[in-house]
Amino acid sequence: MHMASIQPLYIGFQKLSHFMSRLFSSKLNPLYHLGAIAIFLLIIDVVSGVYLFFFYSIDPQTSYQSVERISEDFLGNIMRGIHRYSSDALILTTLTHMVHVIITDRFRMFRWVAWVTGVATLLIFLAIGISGYILVWDARAQLTGLLTAKFFSFLPVFGDALMSAFLGSDIKYLGGLFRILLFAHIALTILIVFTLWVHVMRNARPRLIPPRFLYITITILLITLSLIFPAKSDPPAYINRLPFEMSVDWFYLFSYPLLKYIPMSINWLIFLGFFTFLFVFPWLIKGRRNPPARIDFEKCTGCEQCYIDCPYEAIVMEEYDNKKKALLKESKCAGCGICVGSCSSLAIDIPTFPLEETMEKIEREKASYVVFRCPFSAIPPKREKLLTFTVPCIGVVNTKYVEDILNMGVEGVVLVSCEYEDCYFREGNKWLEERYERKRRPILRKKVMGGRVLILEAPYVKSIEKEIEEFISSKKEGQDVKVVKTESLNYPVATAILAIPIFLFYPLTTHKIAFYPIQSSAVILSFKYRSSPVKEVAQVKVGGLKHMQAQSAIVKERSPIKMEVYKDGNLIYSKVYKPRGIRRDASIFVYEELFLKGDAQKLKIRVEETVHRGKVKEFEFEPPKNPKESVLITYDEATGNFLILK
């Protein structure tokens, strides 16, 4: 970790996390359990979503009513609220988790797989949430679907056809799209299981569920929020009416207001650029990886403790000279040295903790007290006869090393670690405390006076001068090692802190924004037009007798069309549309939005085939006068006439 480059952010975040630890305790600090909280919220989201699915109607003509019936039921209302607010909490927690791993430098080198799959999972979360909002089929759903369709219509493969599904004349297209969206909603949820598995597969004993206090409190707060502020729908959607505004969920629809002000090409550039940057971020910051540990096969007794303790499953047990030996997989090794502290036979060492040099320095300087600290823990004060060593992880300090140091005449040893759940290498401080408390091998032998050893859980921003001075002046008696940690939990304050972001979900998901000029009326042109062919190829139908064979024409290309709109006789819009398909032989989809101030008396639409100039369709109508009023103009291919839908 390059402390010089990220020190201000890192120190700021540690100040915040240490403040939270004083309220929650280090074991229950939510900033140390963000990944587990996100998985727990996902479970709540899935369970509540399955419940809602049982009562939901996939038909867009009845889907809104089915959602409203769910809300009218007491349990259904709670489940809908939990589903919405847990989804928002999931995005907030995931983003906070990403910020945490960036600031604490836990996203690159051997952690790049977890980062890349985490970014992919965030994309999937957003896709699931957006599709879920569309399935409600209220005004927010329609406008979200329409804006999403506009975003994808920039790609030639989609064109205007996708927008016609959300604002058009045929509900069957929307029904088919709803089935695709529901399938995607479920399939992407299942896909998350795979991405999360890849996300944590490198870790031994991944934390998947947060501590009991956190998940119980979060669940109660979500239920309370659902009762006080139930999840509400916007007004119902109508496929032939344009919604001018909608309630924006800023956790999922945060980028949609950009579609109002920025060209679609720039929106695509921002989207692709941002997520490409996130995916390649681990390789943009250079760093030097810790060298791997080294195992002496001759000394290894095959006890398996290093294999058990390794937080990244970098050690496996294999047969070597007819004996079970520990084998290091260097590609997985993080260079933390936790395995060094696990080895009873001292068969493992690591270059970043040269034991012989350390012992020689202690003896040469005749230190009275020795401090070992990890790079992310508090810095001891400078004091005469107090010697400090920085190790890659506090878990590297084997109990036998401390025993040997104390036998050299050193009065006391201080081990300074990160806070309990915030170890940079996940489990170093945890295993250290259990070894020195004689709960895990290799234990601190009973002949060693535990009172001569002090373990401090202290982050980089904490001063430990007082604790070290008290330790130096103490009698250092007894067998038990003293562990100083932040253990107090302030239940009311901790609950209130968790409640603050949760109760902000309601205003952050009900804020209304206009996406179209609300002082104007709208004319929507949404139709499919099959123009005349300009190139055909004759094909003989094969089969039967020769005199019964017939020729049929295959269209190779169709004529483009030119559409013009006149307002009280004056041309206000003109555009040429080309047929779709590689051969330009498919139907033309037209989708346009025209906004008027209410002063127009007559509008006329004129469609002319550019190759066959004589083929013209015209339609004259009276536009809407009132603000936020819209009409839909479509085309009936069966009769060859334009239709107006209000």
Mind explaining what this structure looks like?
- It is a single chain.
- The protein is of the alpha/beta class and about 650 residues long.
- The strands form seven sheets. Strands 7-6-8-9-10 form a five-stranded parallel β-sheet, with helices on both faces.
- It is elongated.
- The N terminus is likely disordered.
**How many strands?**
21
What overall geometry do the principal axes of the alpha carbons give? Answer: elongated
* Secondary-structure-derived class: alpha/beta
How can the largest sheet be summarized?
Answer: 5 strands, parallel
Please tell me the overall pLDDT. 92
Arrangement of strands in the largest sheet: 7-6-8-9-10
The radius of gyration computed from the alpha-carbon positions, rounded to a whole number of angstroms, is 34 Å
Please specify the SSE layout and strand pairing.
Blueprint: H1 3-24, H2 34-55, H3 63-72, H4 74-103, H5 112-136, H6 139-153, H7 161-166, H8 171-200, H9 212-228, E1 245-248, H10 258-261, H11 264-284, E2 294-295, H12 305-309, E3 315-320, E4 323-328, H13 338-342, E5 348-349, H14 355-365, E6 369-373, E7 386-390, H15 399-407, E8 412-417, H16 428-436, E9 453-457, H17 465-473, E10 482-484, H18 491-503, H19 505-509, E11 511-514, E12 521-529, E13 533-540, E14 551-558, E15 561-567, E16 570-577, E17 588-596, E18 603-609, E19 616-621, E20 630-636, E21 641-645
Parallel strand pairs: 6-7, 6-8, 8-9, 9-10, 12-20
Antiparallel strand pairs: 1-11, 2-5, 3-4, 12-17, 13-14, 15-16, 15-18, 18-19, 20-21
Helix pairs in contact: 2-4, 3-4, 4-5, 4-9, 5-6, 5-8, 5-11, 9-18
